């Protein structure tokens, strides 16, 4: 199977030939090959550190709760899921990434004994509040 770079290079070469021939270009479609080409992607996040909490807001428009997974691990907060491709009839530009995504956010080391206090998905924004105690570092004891 050709690598991603080989597929991109082949697509660019074929595109250049089409332009040189002056042929009519058909609209781009978000098919399986283009989905695989541009995945995985990372959603944008804002992180707000408070005294005994850490709030993560992730920009996830068009993501259903059923297609979303989040968890607190030793590496930090892991957010993953999949954005289903919406029908793009007549669309000639598709900037919205589709397919699987994953984002890992490091939790401040001063926050120990962390747990997810609450999580809400509203209007395409996932907000997760992680609580814990202020300590010397992750796993530290007082």
TrEMBL record:
InterPro entries: A-crystallin/Hsp20_dom, HSP20-like_chaperone
Transmembrane domains' residue ranges: none
UniProt xrefs under SUPFAM superfamilies: HSP20-like chaperones
Source species, domain of life: Bacteria
Pfam families in alphabetical order: HSP20
Alphabetical list of PROSITE patterns matching this protein: SHSP
Domain SHSP: 36-142
Similarity field: Belongs to the small heat shock protein (HSP20) family.
Listed name of the protein: HSP20 family protein
